[in-house]
């Protein structure tokens, strides 16, 4: 997987960077790999990024600026400390730093920052690519049951600092907030393809969390 990801990152850097040379993409890929490995994560890692890039490949025709969308997906979880509330903004800062090393334009860099902000999932994002990035990031919620259960276990592992009651409360709050939305997904395509499965997965998990609290 690492070689395929490196090759893909190099191609992206050639398209968006100013220098069009392998040295910059090699350096920044090593930086990116290090960030995704520290601290170790069970879910928010490069395997997660690879999965999202696969989704992007299937829906790239929906993107207005597919390179900005891809860059944002690469960078959106590069800073992740489960106990912190500002991972997205710090990841956006890291994205801006790497974009600067690549010589990306200021307009491209700001666009990427805005797209990363959409992965906070605290409110419905702006239309267009922000909605697409948010929807791609949430595809795991509609995964087949076995994959969803692995995702649940990985998230629990990342929040190992929390006792069961604390984790249950926080996770239930997230699930309920998502289920209370009129739509989990922001784009018509993702609603049609994934809304029902995501609601079923999350409602089942929420019910199980409620049962375990009794």
Walk me through what this model shows:
This protein is mainly α. The protein folds into two domains: 1-123, no CATH class; 138-214, no CATH class. Helix content is 69%, strand content 0%. The protein is globular. The mean pLDDT is 94.
In brief, what are we looking at here?
The protein is an all-alpha fold and 214 residues long. The protein has helices at 2-16, 22-37, 46-59, 66-75, 87-102, 106-117, 129-137, 145-158, 164-179, 188-213. It is built from 10 helices and no strands.
Largest sheet: none
How many structural domains in the coordinates?
Answer: 2
Beginning-to-end CA distance, first to last residue: 43 Å
- The coarse silhouette is globular
How many β-strand stretches? 0
């Amino acid at each position: 997987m690492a070689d395929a990801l490196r090759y893909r990152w190099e191609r992206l850097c050639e398209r968006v960077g100013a220098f069009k040379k392998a040295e910059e993409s090699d350096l920044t890929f090593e930086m990116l790999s290090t960030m995704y490995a520290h601290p170790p994560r069970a879910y928010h890692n490069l395997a997660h990024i690879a999965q999202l890039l696969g989704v992007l490949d299937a829906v790239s025709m929906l993107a207005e600026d597919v390179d900005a969308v891809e860059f944002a997906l690469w960078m959106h979880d590069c800073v992740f400390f489960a106990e912190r509330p500002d991972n997205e903004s710090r990841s956006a800062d890291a994205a801006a730093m790497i974009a600067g090393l690549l010589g990306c334009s200021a307009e491209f860099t700001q666009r990427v920052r805005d797209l990363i902000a959409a992965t906070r999932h605290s409110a419905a994002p702006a239309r267009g690519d922000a909605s697409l990035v948010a929807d791609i990031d949430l595809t795991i919620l509609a995964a087949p049951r076995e994959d969803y259960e692995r995702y649940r276990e990985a998230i629990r592992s990342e929040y190992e600092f929390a006792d069961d009651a604390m984790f249950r409360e926080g996770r239930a709050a997230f699930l309920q907030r998502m289920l209370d939305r009129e739509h989990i997904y922001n784009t018509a395509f993702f609603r049609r393809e994934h809304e029902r499965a995501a609601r079923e997965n999350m409602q089942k998990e929420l019910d199980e969390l409620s049962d375990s609290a009794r």
